[in-house]
Amino acid sequence: MDELIDYRCVDFQKLLILKAKSLHLSDQQCYVLLLIMTLDEIGVKPITPLQISKICSLSVQKLDDILMSLVDKHWISRQNGSLNLKPLQRLLLDQNEQSTDQDIDLVGIFEDAFGRSLSQREVQLINSLKCQGYDDEMIVDALNESVKSGVITFRYIEKILDNWARYGVTKRYAPTNVSTHQEVEQSIKDYKWWENHE
């Protein structure tokens, strides 16, 4: 089905207008999505909030709020500073990927790590990380990495995420098989070196 998206076999603008009400999109959200689709269709790259603000009458603050809500609902994503419509296109084609993410309380996790309440500026920094396309799990992994390093600052966390994005890391910690590790340790503990006859 991704071929339908890649080869532009479907008119997603018409499909969006027809399905906007059933997706519970507000008129402004629908309008912004149509603007993004139009910019994509005419070949504007990268599609950024600044590019959108040049062709619409919404204030920059209102546009940011709408884009943030669309990113939070996983209808669009941000990759390397550019907006990506594939999540919405899959949703319109009824291919919505089942999200395995539970809603993570990022502010609570950060407050626990920092040992204090976050300022409004720090909460905005967390939101900006989400707007850049990082999912909640990656942000938490970067926070854990900074805690291990003993450098708990937002700048350091952002640099960790930037490095991971540059090298294509999508999941920081692969699941490990703990039982195998314990079995190996047990076999080492049980090794009777004194019985080794050469």
UniProtKB/TrEMBL annotation:
InterPro entries: DnaB/C_C, DnaD, DnaD-like_sf, WH-like_DNA-bd_sf. Coiled coil: none annotated. Residues 109-170 form the DnaB/C C-terminal domain. Belongs to the DnaB/DnaD family. NCBIfam families: DnaD_dom (TIGR01446). This is DnaD domain protein. It comes from Massilimicrobiota timonensis.
